[in-house]
Amino acid sequence: MILTLFGPPGSGKGTQAGALCRRYGLIHVATGDVLRAEIRTGSETGKRASELMSRGEFVPDDLVLGIVRDRIDAALDCGKGVLLDGYPRNPDQVADLDSLLVGRGRRLDMALVLEIDDAKLISRLTGRRICGECNRVYNVNTNPPSEPGVCDDCGGRLEQRADDREEAIATRLEEYHGQTRPVLAVLEARDAVVRIDADRPIDAVRRDLARAVAEARA
Ligand code: AP5
Predict the structure, then answer these.
(1) How many other CB atoms are found less than 10 A from the CB of residue 73?
(2) Which of the residues 48, 106, 161, 195 is marked catalytic?
(3) Tell me: the pLDDT tens digits for 88-102?
(4) Residue 155: alpha-carbon gap to chain centroid
(5) pTM to 2 decimals?
């Protein structure tokens, strides 16, 4: 199964992806996580991505397509499904993904859409902290670690993302509404969209996501 977890910045994609992947044996392909890992290597690609991402702008489509292609191929080679997170992010990326999957006899089976008003997202994003080792997501207000600044799972140091500043958040929300939301109309025309109210406790959202995937597999 090839799924995408879709929603605005801060809607809970990263928070929900891990449990969903463990439960259904999916490989998590989060373009933002892969790009941040590339930035940490100090490569030229990472430097280019870092400039754009810290302003809240998208990186070029061909760069993300390469990331997605390699990881989808690796997952399919070992007989696994894929949970995309942060991709596709504009209608051209839908076309890129379609071509990639058709060539492998697959298609995008479903978009799981996390819905929440923009007004709720600012405090989620400014309070977010992420483990630099395992990428587990926390929030200093609503979902803190047991010991401040330290990951409960692996003991890694918690970090704040460069794009979780208010100016960059405003740009990211503009990009989401201008470029990413139109993807939904494309996928809705294929009857491949399940909408989930993301303005509820993390466990409630998790249950609905799991139910949607279970129904799609039935
Ligand atoms: P990316 O990393 O994909 O960021 P994003 O889409 O902006 O989404 P976020 O990671 O900010 O939010 P999330 O939905 O995962 O929320 P989270 O679970 O962390 O992309 C970053 C950048 O990379 C882009 O801006 C772009 O530059 C580039 N990029 C990536 N993909 C690209 C592509 N395809 N094309 C071009 N460029 C690309 O939760 C947020 C906070 O809320 C956390 O603190 C969490 O604890 C809290 N929280 C979560 N759920 C709940 C809940 N139910 N109740 C209360 N708090 C909650």
Answers:
(1) 11
(2) 161
(3) 999 999 999 999 999
(4) 23
(5) 0.95
Which residue in 2, 4, 55, 27 sits closest to 183, CA to CA?
4
Q: How far apart are CA 39 and CA 44, in angstroms?
A: 9
- Residue 209 has φ and ψ, to the nearest 5°, of -65, -45
Residues with CB under 6 A from ligand 1: 7, 9-15, 31-32, 35, 52-53, 56-59, 64, 86-87, 89, 93, 124, 127-128, 137-139, 142-143, 163, 172, 198, 201-202, 205
The pLDDT value given to residue 191:
86
SS3 90: coil
Atom of ligand 1 nearest to the CA of 32: 2
172 annotated active-site: yes
In the chain, pLDDT over 90 holds for what percent of residues? 95
107 belongs to the catalytic site:
no
Q: What pLDDT, on the 0 to 100 scale, is given for residue 208? A: 98
195 is catalytic: no
